[in-house]
Amino acid sequence: MDDPRTDPPVAADEATTLVGFLDFLRDTVALKTDGLSAEQLAAVHPPSSMTLGGMLKHLAYVEDQWVGHVLLGSPPAPPWDEAPWDDDPDWDWHSAATDDPAALRGLWRSAVQRSRTDLPLDDLGRLSALERRGERVSVRYVLVHLVEEYARHAGHADLLREAVDGSTGE
Questions:
Q1: What's the mean per-residue pLDDT of the chain?
Q2: What is the rounded distance in angstroms from the CA atom of residue 115 to the CA atom of residue 93?
């Protein structure tokens, strides 16, 4: 597997360092999911019900939810605005099985691009427009949360991709 990722900077300011790690992890998820068919993206490997396609859709939701909705106060955008969250709190994970791979990748890449464009990196202490569990969170908190979310799922993606087609590597 060719590795197109760029290592995070080793000596930079806080925002550049956090974004560097986030982009490295985003690239890791892309590396682990690119080139897979709909069947491969929807493949389940017991005992987990997690899929690589579900992970992409979940990460698209995480980007839009945390940056667009919580931090900036924008209303949820499609498809999140009409998702049946009350019927299935994990709809993002479960609904991806029927998504076209190109559309799924496009949904995720669009969410990443919106986050890259909309994150106010000039003020990491700026507080969110909306409260999360009764508190407003900072841009710094959102960035660290995104790094944590991607790091956890990049590890899952390593295992799932190996189970799908035997591909291994960082």
A1: 95
A2: 20
Determine the Cα–Cα distance for residues 17 and 21; give it in Å rounded to an integer: 6
CA distance 114 to 108: 10
pLDDT in tens, 108-136: 999 999 999 999 999 999 999 999 999 99
Long-range pairs, 31-38, Cβ under 8 A, ≥24: 31/1, 31/3, 31/4, 31/5, 32/154, 32/157, 32/158, 32/160, 32/161, 32/167, 33/105, 33/157, 33/161, 34/105, 36/101, 36/161, 36/164, 36/165, 37/101, 38/99, 38/100, 38/101
Query: Which domains are delineated in the chain?
Result: 18-165 (1.20.120.450)
Name the packing angle between helices 14-33 and 52-63 (round to 10°).
150
23-74: pLDDT as tens digits:
999 999 999 999 999 999 999 999 999 999 999 999 999 999 999 999 999 9
Confidence of residue 1 (pLDDT cuts 50, 70, 90): low
